[in-house]
Structures are given as C-alpha cells and as structure tokens.
Design goal:
The protein is an all-alpha fold and 201 residues long. It has a domain of 135 residues. The protein starts with 13 loop residues before the first helix and ends with a helix.
C-alpha cells in the first residue's frame, strides 16, 4: 500500500513562526519549572491567540466542538463516579486486589483505560495510589499502562477518536475490529515489556 498526499505549498509566516517557537519554549520551561501544567497551557494558548495576522474566528472554526464536548463530559462522568461510587469501603476492597504489584496494576489500568478512556482512568485510579507501597513506582506504572493501553481499541484514547473522525471526514473508514487486530498485539507486547521493566528492583 502506497500513501500519497497532494497538499498545496505551505506559506511560512515568519513572525508567527517565531512567536510560536518562543511560546512553545516558554511553555516547556514552565513545565520543567514545576508550574501547574493546566495554567501554563492556558497562558500559552491565550498568548498564541493574541495576534492581528490570523483572526480568532478562523481558529475557532477549526475546533472540533463535538469532540471537545465529549471529552469534557467524560470528566463530568468521572467526577460523579468518584463522588458516588468511590466510597471508603470501595477503596478498601479495591486495595485488596494487590494493586501494589506492577502486573496487576498494569492490567487494571489497561482495562479501565479502554472503558472510560485513558485520561479519565488515571483520575479514577488516583485515590488508590497513596495506598500503594511504593507510590512512585505505582504512578509510573499507571502512566505507562494508561498510555500504552490507548493503543488497544479505538476507545482507548481520545487521540484515536480524533484520527478516526478526521479520517471519516476524508472518506476513510477505520473499523473497530480492523484497528483492534493491529492495536491488541501491539498493546499487549508493550505493556508486558513496560511491566517487566518497572518490576525490576
């Protein structure tokens, strides 16, 4: 299969390019400086919108509002889930599943990531991390498994939904099983490698 794209020549706007590079470097510096990531991202996004070259309306037209609404709804559902279902008794019962073991935590994280997507899954698992014997290793395990589990199914990551929706808009249909045939072995292999790595003393 050969992929070919016919795109018009790009027009490089030098001042905007330099501004984007400066904002990106400042944002990365803010991350490494320990500033709140959400605040840094919002300030960087606001700085990029402040321009007379490109009208804000043109930028807003490029936003996929439906997908953004779905993503925001996921956080609302997860917040409700935490308030109603994650009682002290539930947390105690889940803690008995040996989440302090890297393979078990990896499996639970991967399964949950494909039920509610990987970012909300991390929020759901947050109350159990402090009870882990080694919180640093537990958080690394969740980061590893939730990221790689996003490759298992189309629902595993919002990034997958963005690609599938964008492809459909251009007449390319990516089915659940067609994706799963590639994503499943890749996910299992990478999570097994990651779990073995993090299990090392």
């Amino acid at each position: 299969m050969e992929f070919a794209a016919h795109t018009p020549p790009a027009h490089l706007h030098r001042p905007l390019t330099l501004k984007a590079l400066a904002v990106t470097l400042a944002m990365v510096a803010g991350f490494f400086a320990g500033l709140p990531p959400a605040l840094v991202a919002l300030v960087a996004g606001g700085a990029m919108l402040l321009t007379r070259v490109v009208r804000s309306e043109r930028i807003y037209r490029e936003i996929d509002w439906t997908l953004l609404l779905m993503f925001a709804g996921l956080f609302v559902v997860v917040a409700g889930f935490e308030k109603v279902l994650l009682t002290p008794e539930t947390i105690a019962a889940v803690s008995r599943l040996h989440l302090d073991q890297v393979p078990v935590l990896s499996l639970v994280t991967a399964a949950l990531s494909n039920l509610v997507s990987n970012v909300p899954a991390v929020l759901v698992l947050r109350p159990f991390m402090n009870a882990a014997g080694e919180p640093d290793r537990a958080w690394l395990t969740v980061a590893m498994a939730s990221t790689l589990a996003g490759n298992l199914t189309i629902l595993g990551s919002v990034a997958n939904l963005i690609v599938v929706q964008g492809a459909r808009a251009h007449g390319v249909a990516i089915g659940f099983w067609a994706y799963f045939r590639v994503g499943a072995p890749l996910t299992v292999l990478t999570i097994v490698i990651g779990a073995c790595w993090l299990s090392l003393p």
